[in-house]
Design a protein that fits this description.
alpha+beta, 37 strands, globular, binds alpha-L-arabinofuranose
C-alpha cells in the first residue's frame, strides 16, 4: 500500500484501511465497510423483500417437501376430510394368489406422537404370477397423484418395522409403472421385534412421472409397519428430509431477504388444539406430531422448523418464524372468514409454559450447544447458531382483550430475556378497520418494534395508495407488510404490485419487510386462488407476479435516492425508484409503467461517482391480460440485455412494464 495522508481509504473489495499520517505506516486494520453509498441517500431496510411461506394449497406435503409417499405414517383421519382414514392413499395388495390380513393399530406405536400404524399378517405367499412377476402380501402407495422418478437418480427408501412373529420377514421394495413394470427393486429382511428403521436405495432404470411404491412381504409371518418414506437423493442442496430441488431453486433465485413461516392462518390454527407448535415439528420425523391443516388437509410436519431454518440458511435469507399469540384463529370452527367457535385463548394458568415455549425457540435457534435446546439443534446436525433475529407473535388475530393480554405477556418476556430479538406484532387482516386501529394502538402503547400488516385488494387500490406509508411516523413502530397481493395473476396485477413496491422502497425507512402471499399452489389442490407460483408434480408455472417479486428482491438496496428519475409526477400510473446496494456499490433503477402506452422517463446519475459504461437491463412487459399457464409457450418472462449507460439518459418505459437497470459503480 502506498503512503497516504488520508486517514481512511478503501480498497476494491470494500475493506476500510485506517492509515496514520504521522508514521506513514499502514495500520492493517481491515474492517468490513457497512456501506459507501453516494451522498444524500436515505438508509432503508436491507431486509425489505422476502418470502411468505404457508402450508396452504399443498405447499408443504406434496409440494416443497420432497417426500414422495402420501400418508407415510398412517395418520390421515376423518377430522381432516370425512372420507379420509389411516389407510387413505394406501392399497393392500396380495399378488400371486397370496393372502393375509391388514389392520390399523395404536397399542404399541413407534412413538406416542405418531399413534397409528399398520399390522400385516402374511398367511400365505403364493407363486409369482407370470407377466406380473410378483407375489406376496403388502402395500402400494402412489404418492401425491403418482411419484415422479428419474432414470439413474437415487431414491432413498425407509420404513419402520417391528417383527411380530418369530421369523424374520423378507421384503421386496420396488418402484413400478402403472402397468407394473419394475423400475427399481431392493430387498430388506427384518431382524428385530423392536421398531427398527430399515433402509434401501432404489435407482430407476427409466424415468416415470406416475410411479408407485410397492412394499411386499415375501415370507409368511406378522409384522407392524410405520413411517414409510421415499425421498429423492437429489433434494435441494442434497439435504436429507429435504426440499423438492426445482421448486426450492425457484425460490432461491429470488434472493429473498427473509422467509416468514409457517403461515398465515396455519400459525394460529383452527382452535387451540390446532395451533402450530414449533416443538412438535423438530427431531426425527417419526417423533413429530402430525396434525390437521387448517386448509383442509394433512400436515406431516416433515417440513418442520429445522428444515425451514436450514432452507433460510441455504439461500441466505433471514428466518422469520411466526408463533401464535396464544390465541387461535378467530374463524376457528367455521369456514374461512365465516366464523365458527371464534378465537380461543390459552388459559392463563398455561401461559407460563406457553411463554417458555416461545423462549425455547430462541434458545433452540441461537443458544450454545451446551444449552438444553441448543443441544437439540446440534443433535439434528446444526451446532452453529441459526442467527435468528426476528420472531413474529400472532397472525392477523382479532384484537380482543384476551389477545392483548397474552401478546403483552409474550412480548415482555421476549424483550426481557432476548433484547437482541426484534418482535413482529400483528394488526389484523385488513389495511384499515377496527382490528387494524386497535392493533396499531396496542403496538404503539407497547412499543412493539415491527407490526405485520395484511391486505389482499384490487390493483386500483395499490395504484391509489402509493402514499400510504409517506405519512407513517418515523422512529416508531415499523411495518412488515407480511401478506399482500392484488386480486389476480395477470400482468396488470403484477405491474400494479410493482408500482406499489417502489413506494415500499421509498418508505424503506418505515417499511422494514414485505412479502407477497400466498407463495405456492399445487394445481388441482388449491384453496387460495391467487398465488405466486403454481406447480404440479413435474411443471412449475411462475406467474408474472413471481417475476415482479423476483426483480425487486434480487435487486434490493439499502440506500434510497430520490430525484434520480424524472417522470410525469401527475401520472399515478408511472412509478420509479433508485436504490444502491452498499455491499456491491451497484445502483438499481426500477421503472414502472401501468399505462397501456409507453412513457418517457429521464435518469440523472450525476450524484454517483464513476459508473460502468454498460448495465444489465431486465424488462417484464406485455398486454395487461397476459397470464402464465402450464402449457402456454408464450408465458410472460422478463428479458435481460446489456445496455450502454451514460450519466444522464432518457428511457422510454414500455406499456404495462417493469424495468430494472442494474449499474455497477467504480471506485
Ligand atoms: O395467505 C392466505 C391467508 O390469508 C393466510 O393464511 C392468512 O393469514 C390470510 O388471511
Amino acid at each position: 500500500m502506498k503512503k497516504s495522508n488520508r486517514l481512511f481509504s478503501f480498497n476494491k473489495k470494500g475493506k476500510l484501511f485506517i492509515v496514520t499520517a504521522l508514521s506513514g505506516l499502514c495500520l492493517l486494520f481491515a474492517v468490513t465497510v457497512i456501506g459507501q453509498p453516494a451522498k444524500n441517500g436515505k438508509k432503508i431496510s436491507s431486509d425489505l423483500f422476502g418470502l411468505f411461506f404457508e402450508d396452504i394449497n399443498y405447499s408443504a406435503d406434496g409440494g416443497l417437501y420432497a417426500e414422495l409417499v402420501q400418508n407415510r405414517s398412517f395418520e390421515y383421519n376423518p377430522t381432516e376430510r370425512s372420507e379420509w382414514n389411516p389407510f387413505s392413499y394406501w392399497e393392500y395388495i396380495s399378488p400371486g394368489f397370496s393372502y393375509g390380513r391388514v389392520s390399523v393399530e395404536t397399542s404399541a406405536p413407534v412413538h406416542p406422537n405418531n399413534p397409528h400404524y399398520l399390522v400385516l399378517d402374511v398367511e400365505h405367499v403364493g407363486k409369482e404370477v407370470k407377466f406380473v412377476g410378483i407375489s406376496g402380501v403388502g402395500l402400494k402407495n402412489s404418492g401425491f397423484d403418482g411419484m415422479v422418478v428419474k432414470e439413474k437418480d437415487q431414491y432413498n427408501f425407509s420404513m419402520f418395522v417391528s417383527q411380530l412373529s418369530k421369523n424374520p420377514i423378507s421384503f421386496s421394495i420396488s418402484l413400478r409403472t402403472p402397468k407394473g413394470i419394475v423400475l427399481a427393486e431392493s430387498k430388506i429382511t427384518t431382524s428385530s421385534g423392536e421398531w427398527t428403521k430399515y433402509t434401501a436405495s432404489l435407482i430407476p432404470t427409466q424415468s416415470c412421472d406416475t410411479a408407485s411404491l410397492f412394499i411386499l412381504a415375501t415370507t409368511e409371518g406378522k409384522f407392524a409397519i410405520d413411517v414409510v418414506s421415499l425421498f429423492p437423493e437429489k433434494t435441494f442442496k442434497n439435504r436429507p428430509n429435504g426440499l423438492r430441488a426445482d421448486l426450492a431453486q425457484m425460490l432461491a433465485d429470488m434472493k429473498p431477504g427473509f422467509i416468514r413461516f409457517p403461515g398465515g392462518c396455519v400459525v394460529h390454527g383452527d382452535g387451540l388444539g390446532n395451533m402450530y407448535r414449533w416443538e412438535n415439528t423438530i427431531g426425527p420425523i417419526e417423533q413429530r406430531k402430525e396434525q390437521r391443516n387448517i386448509w383442509g388437509y394433512h400436515q406431516t410436519a416433515g417440513l418442520g422448523y429445522f428444515e425451514f431454518f436450514q432452507f433460510c440458511e441455504d439461500i441466505g435469507a433471514k428466518p422469520l418464524p411466526v408463533l401464535p399469540a396464544a390465541v387461535s384463529c378467530q374463524n376457528s370452527g367455521g369456514t374461512w372468514r365465516i366464523g365458527g367457535t371464534g378465537q380461543k385463548a390459552v388459559p392463563m394458568d398455561e401461559m407460563k409454559d406457553y411463554i417458555q415455549e416461545v423462549l425455547d425457540l430462541i434458545e433452540w435457534a441461537n443458544g450454545p450447544v451446551t444449552s438444553v435446546w441448543g443441544a437439540r439443534r446440534a443433535a439434528a446436525g446444526h451446532p452453529a447458531s441459526f442467527n435468528l433475529q426476528y420472531v413474529g407473535i400472532g397472525n392477523e388475530d382479532k384484537m380482543t382483550p384476551e389477545f392483548e393480554q397474552r401478546f403483552k405477556m409474550i412480548f415482555d418476556a421476549v424483550k426481557a430475556r432476548h433484547p437482541e430479538i426484534t418482535v413482529v406484532g400483528t394488526v389484523g387482516p385488513a389495511p384499515d378497520g377496527e382490528d387494524f386501529t386497535k392493533g396499531w394502538k396496542i403496538a404503539n402503547d407497547q412499543k412493539v418494534p415491527v407490526v405485520d400488516e395484511h391486505y389482499y385488494t384490487s390493483p386500483e387500490w395499490f395504484i391509489s395508495n402509493q402514499k400510504r406509508y409517506n405519512a407513517y411516523p418515523r422512529n416508531a413502530t415499523q411495518v412488515y407488510l407480511g401478506e399482500y397481493a392484488s386480486w389476480g395473476n395477470k400482468l396488470r396485477n403484477a405491474i400494479a404490485e410493482a408500482v406499489y413496491m417502489t413506494s415500499l422502497e421509498r418508505n424503506g425507512d418505515v417499511v422494514r419487510m414485505a412479502s407477497y402471499a400466498p407463495l405456492l399452489a399445487k394445481k388441482n389442490f388449491t384453496q387460495w386462488k391467487i398465488d405466486m407460483i403454481f406447480f404440479d408434480n413435474t411443471v412449475i408455472c411462475p406467474t408474472p407476479n413471481y417475476y415482479v417479486q423476483k426483480m425487486f428482491s434480487a435487486n434490493q438496496g439499502d440506500y434510497y435516492f430520490d430525484k434520480v428519475i424524472t417522470k410525469d409526477e401527475k401520472d399515478q400510473l408511472l412509478a420509479a425508484s433508485c436504490v444502491q446496494d452498499s455491499k456491491t456499490g451497484d445502483i438499481i433503477l426500477k421503472l414502472v409503467n401501468y399505462n397501456e402506452t409507453a412513457n418517457p422517463m429521464k435518469i440523472n446519475l450525476s450524484r454517483f461517482g464513476k459508473i460502468a459504461a454498460e448495465a444489465e437491463q431486465t424488462v417484464l412487459a406485455g398486454n395487461p391480460d397476459d397470464e402464465n399457464t402450464f402449457t402456454n409457450t408464450k408465458n410472460k418472462v422478463p428479458a435481460s440485455t446489456v445496455v450502454k449507460i451514460k450519466k444522464s439518459f432518457d428511457y422510454s418505459s414500455p406499456a404495462m412494464s417493469l424495468t430494472v437497470i442494474r449499474i455497477k459503480t467504480k471506485n
